[in-house]
Design brief:
Radius of gyration: 34 Å
Distance between the termini: 22 Å
Order of helices and strands: HHEEEEEEHEEHEEEHEEHEHHHHHH
Helix content: 40-55%
Length: 385
């Protein structure tokens, strides 16, 4: 009889032990797969939400000057050589090496005006880019569709007594309020927004921008390198990363990864102990059987291979079932924690890793019991007959 047939028959005769061994490994693999998959999906979800939060790179004109700040209090500054950014230079951002990581570029121009003895600030923007950059904006009305329409922040609208459809004159040109921006709790509430070309025209800034906000996909991308690449393409601009967003994102992702790995290690250790204890108990129960194998000419290596083959069969089966259970459990339970999962796909690396890990743990935990069985004295074993 071949060794693998002996191993299979032993498992069939000891179904309870085999099931207990299978469950111990399967629970471990299921937990690890669920944790790793949940971490991966949550990381992707966090990256997606953080990318929607706003800009993480700011481009401003480079100027020679002194900024006076102390303890977070701005005391003003002296600018010696104020420059502006050419709008055509912003197109160079799409030519950098990491251009695929750039999600949105939102240029802006600023201008002040006076109306009814009240002063306010107008921001010229590309509304498609601005709305993509700020998905939290909620409008009463609609975003401007023509050059003669503008959007008003709620505080600005209240100061001037405006509502959707109201007219307002800016720089001797009449505009109509297309919508009111609901309160955001930011400086946007006190501003007016119009289309970038119109703002450039009425403030005599044609072809120029005062700044640009950039949103980059940076789950794994080197944002410092992106800043360097943009700086090389636009030497007349100062390019800076919003460090709070970047560091917060990376810290969150690193924390999730460490937590997942730590819990996985503990679960795997428990699974390995279950395998070890079960295999040792199985060997002790099979003293007579092992003695007979030795008496009829089985070598020590043959006995070890029988024990390890049993562990291999159970471990591989536990890896397959554990992976499927982990993926299924994650797909079912994770939406309760982070909402709808977009584009959930199994990771082939996790699938292969779970099978390999299950087999390695099963064999490693069974090696000592197998060694013990192979060293058993057949004469002592046969005395139990």
């Amino acid at each position: 009889m071949k060794l693998h047939n002996i191993a299979i028959n032993n498992l069939r005769r000891r179904k309870t032990k085999a099931l207990f061994l299978l469950m111990g490994l399967m629970i471990g693999v299921t937990s690890v797969v669920a944790l790793l998959t949940a971490t991966r999906v949550m990381k992707e979800d966090i990256v997606h939400k953080m990318e929607e939060f706003g800009a993480n790179i700011i481009i401003t004109p480079r100027s020679e000057g002194i900024s006076l700040n102390y303890g977070g209090l701005s005391l003003g500054g002296i600018s010696f050589d104020l420059r502006e950014i050419a709008e055509t230079d912003l197109a160079k951002i799409r030519t950098i090496k990491n251009a695929d990581n750039i999600r949105t570029v939102s240029p802006k121009i600023f201008g002040a005006f006076e109306n009814r003895d009240r002063k306010a600030l107008v921001v010229g923007v590309n509304f498609a880019s601005e709305l993509s950059l700020k998905p939290w904006w909620k409008l009463s009305g609609a975003a401007p569709k023509t050059d003669e329409e503008i959007l008003a922040g709620q505080e600005a609208a209240e100061r001037f007594g405006l509502k959707p459809g109201s007219p307002i004159t800016i720089k001797d040109k009449e505009f109509r309020i297309s919508g009111i921006l609901n309160l955001t709790g930011s400086q946007d509430d006190s501003l007016f927004f119009m289309k970038l070309p119109m703002a450039q025209e009425i403030f005599n800034k044609t072809g120029k921008v005062a700044m640009a906000e950039v949103a980059a996909h940076c789950g794994n991308c080197p944002i410092t390198e992106i800043v360097r690449q943009i700086s090389e393409r636009i030497p007349a601009a100062k390019v800076t990363a919003v460090q709070q967003v970047v560091e917060g994102r990376m810290g969150t992702l690193a924390g999730l990864q460490k937590l997942s790995l730590g819990i996985s290690a503990i679960v795997l250790l428990v699974g390995a102990m279950v395998v070890f204890v079960t295999m040792m108990a199985s060997v002790n129960e099979r003293t007579r059987e092992i003695g007979i194998f030795s008496a009829i000419g089985f070598r020590r290596s043959h006995i070890m291979r029988i024990i390890l083959l049993e562990a291999l069969i159970v471990s591989f089966t536990a890896g397959v079932i554990g992976y499927l259970a982990g993926i299924g459990g994650t797909h079912f339970f994770l939406p309760f924690f982070i909402g709808k999962i977009a584009g959930f796909t199994p990771d082939p690396i996790v699938a292969a890793g779970s099978l390999l890990l299950s087999v390695l743990i099963g064999l490693a935990a069974s090696f000592y019991p197998a060694m013990t069985a192979s060293k058993m004295d057949p004469s002592e074993a046969l005395r139990t007959l």
